[in-house]
Design brief:
Length: 400
């Protein structure tokens, strides 16, 4: 961990603009300046030209085309996005050694110690944007501020293809007029609670005592929002920060799904998640099932195992149990998305083996399957129940 001086705006939040769509426009000149949608059934990403018509990520493809009939729909190319991400992160690492990746298309950079060799943070930010465009061919927006939270807010306000610096003596003047949704962690449900009480801007939230927010939202959320509304964010840049969980999800559409279909989807997700865990040499204890229903409401179910594991069979058994418990809700409300994640992660090499050391507890099958897939590709071997089924896309992730 590295702690900035906190006296000047020296934290950068760099965020690629409409990442997947920008890669498509970069690689196909015919798409430039046109509304582009990546993904047909569900919108995985869209260009700013499509966003101007109200198209949004995760929107149903048919709804997106009704809003933007002239949109060009292209299939996703995950390998191209992964390569572009690696190239951009190389630019980040050439800029400063203090880089904290958030996802494949955004990161925090601490440039506080580079003034003598690289100039002021705003000069570094300008060069960073120019380097990403020149070396990778993609537009990127950068926010510069004294805290990570405010740097991220600044980049969001500056989009697309912008640069915004928030001086330390103008932080609250910049922050307080913004909508409450700009506060990190405020989603639709929390925003509705705040708006129902007449709290529409960050400044409205800042006026309330912490105790009032705690009474309204609970202790954790109330304290969190009270701190952010006053730009209190002491979190340092964490270089090499490992994931707290590893997961995957699958959009299903709105048609009815049989128990057999859902089980096949669940098995495919567990296979994907546990392979990623073993590749990163991680083991986890808490298995979480996430569901989204036809009315867009969501439900989460989780179970914590007695010991950490990366074994596919153990995690699948737990996930199936959670799915079975949620079956009445699924039958009543329909289902449009299934997600699975494993948290409480540990380094696999430090997990203590449990007695008895019987053959069933070993990982020979997982190791053999991983070896085949590593050598011949992820589709070289699969479960019989998944044959002929679309298993969805494997979204690129940052190395863990």
């Amino acid at each position: 961990m590295f702690v900035s001086s906190g006296l000047e705006a020296d934290i950068l939040h760099a965020d690629l603009d409409a990442f997947y769509a920008s890669v498509e426009q970069r690689d196909d000149p015919r798409l430039r300046g046109r509304p582009v949608i990546v993904g047909a059934g569900v919108v995985l990403a869209c260009s700013y030209e499509a966003k101007a018509y109200g198209v949004r990520t995760a929107m149903n493809g048919g709804q997106a085309l009704r809003r933007c009939p002239g949109a060009i729909v292209v299939p996703p190319r995950m390998s191209a996005y992964s390569e572009a991400s690696k190239a951009v992160f190389k630019v980040f690492e050439d800029t400063t050694p203090l880089v904290e990746g958030l996802s494949i298309d955004e990161a925090f950079l601490d440039v506080g110690g580079l003034r003598k060799i690289s100039g002021a943070p705003i000069d570094i930010a300008r060069r960073l944007r120019a380097e990403v465009l020149a070396r990778v061919g993609l537009p990127i927006t950068v926010g510069v501020a004294r805290t990570k939270f405010l740097a991220k807010v600044a980049s969001g306000v500056a989009k697309p293809d912008g640069l915004l610096v928030v001086p330390p003596d103008e932080e609250l003047e910049f922050l307080h007029p913004l909508a409450v949704e700009r506060l990190w962690g405020v989603g639709e449900v929390t925003a509705e609670k705040l708006r129902n009480r007449g709290l529409r801007t960050v400044g409205d939230v800042a006026i309330l005592p912490e105790a009032a927010l705690i009474a309204m939202l609970g202790r954790a959320s109330g304290r969190h929002l009270h701190a952010l509304a006053h730009n209190r964010d002491p979190r340092p840049i964490e270089v090499g920060r490992r994931r707290r969980s590893i997961g995957s999800q699958r959009a299903l559409g709105r048609s009815p799904k049989s128990a057999e279909t859902l089980d096949a989807v669940l098995a495919g997700l567990v296979d994907r998640v546990t392979r990623r865990m073993r590749s990163a040499e991680r083991a986890g204890r808490t298995v979480t099932l996430r569901l989204r229903f036809d009315d867009f409401s969501r439900a989460t179910r989780s179970h914590t195992l007695p010991q950490a594991t990366g074994q596919t069979r153990a995690i699948l058994v737990t996930a199936r149990s959670l799915m079975a418990a949620a079956r009445p809700m699924i039958e009543k409300q329909g289902i449009t998305m299934v997600g699975i994640s494993v948290g409480n992660l540990e380094n696999e090499k430090t997990v203590q083996l449990a007695l008895p050391f019987d053959k069933a507890a070993n990982d020979e099958l997982d190791s053999a399957l991983d070896g085949v897939r590593d050598k011949f590709g992820s589709n070289a071997i699969t479960r019989g129940t998944l044959l002929g089924r679309d298993q969805g896309l494997a979204v690129p992730m940052l190395p863990d």
